[in-house]
Write a structure and sequence with these properties.
The complex is a heterodimer. In chain A, the strands form two sheets. In chain A, strands 2, 4, 5, 9, 10 and 11 form a six-stranded mixed sheet that branches. A five-stranded antiparallel sheet of chain A has the order 1-3-8-7-6, with no helix packed on it. Chain A is globular. Chain A is mainly β. Chain A contains no helices and eleven strands. Chain B is mainly beta. Chain B has one domain: Sandwich (Immunoglobulin-like). The chains are: A mainly beta, B mainly beta. Chains A and B meet through strand 4, strand 5, strand 9 and strand 10 of A and strand 5 and strand 10 of B.
Chain lengths: ~110, ~110
């Protein structure tokens, strides 16, 4: 059961904000966020464990709503360097396999 | 020094051939993975090893066989290559399962 990300794609102007959602139909232990630029490897952003915590990484933060089995990635005051495909990966049990969503393509224009 | 390195970066081969992709990590991690990313960017786990022991084995055709000679290396051998095997294969490592993963630069496999 692959998590579902929304939106599939988003285009921003520099300085604008965006939210990417990741939803699971199954109870989650953790949610992982990665960013992949075109032609490159995925790069880790953050991990959120069940408990509804919020984490931050520069101007990128995320939350995990355990009740809704959903995580949201918040990008504020976007920069050109934020362009890429964002993947959420979900883990059902501690130490279990990571299943990635289909990705959200983010383009930041000047 | 590259943390997770894969060779080769590009691989073009004919259907039916056998090929290997090598992966090495110098991070001292215990866990290594192979992921496949298809043309639609879907990233799917294939295998995971922890300290040379196979711990995750997804429903991958048995033409794919991973081998971990030591915890710093995880190789992927593919027999009788098919057109549908064309994809980018990523190796990754982490301290343990469920923690931050570091990915190699990927191997773009094209089967013709």
């Amino acid at each position: 059961q692959q998590p579902v990300q929304s939106p599939q794609a988003v285009i921003l102007r520099e300085g604008e904000d965006a939210v990417i959602n990741c939803s699971s139909s199954k109870a989650l232990y953790s949610v992982h966020w990665y960013r992949q630029k075109h032609g490159e490897a995925p790069v880790f952003l953050m991990i959120l464990l069940k408990g509804g915590e919020q984490k931050g990484h520069e101007k990128i933060s995320a939350s995990f709503n355990e009740k809704k089995q959903q995580s949201s990635l918040y990008l504020t005051a976007s920069q050109l360097s934020y362009s890429g495909t964002y993947f959420c990966g979900t883990e059902w049990d501690q130490g279990g396999k990571l299943i990635f969503g289909q990705g959200t393509e983010l383009s930041v224009k000047p | 020094d590259t943390a997770v390195s894969q060779t080769p970066k590009y691989l073009v081969t004919q259907m039916g051939n056998d090929k290997s992709i090598k992966c090495e990590q110098n991070l001292g991690h215990d866990t290594m993975y192979w992921y496949k990313q298809d043309s639609k960017k879907f990233l799917k786990i294939m295998f995971s090893y922890n300290n040379k022991e196979l711990i995750i084995n997804e429903t991958v055709p048995n033409r794919f066989s991973p081998k971990s000679p030591d915890k710093a290396h995880l190789n992927l051998h593919i027999n009788s290559l098919e057109l549908g095997d064309s994809a980018v294969y990523f190796c990754a490592s982490s301290v343990r399962v469920g923690t931050e993963a570091f990915f190699g630069q990927g191997t773009r496999l094209t089967v013709v």
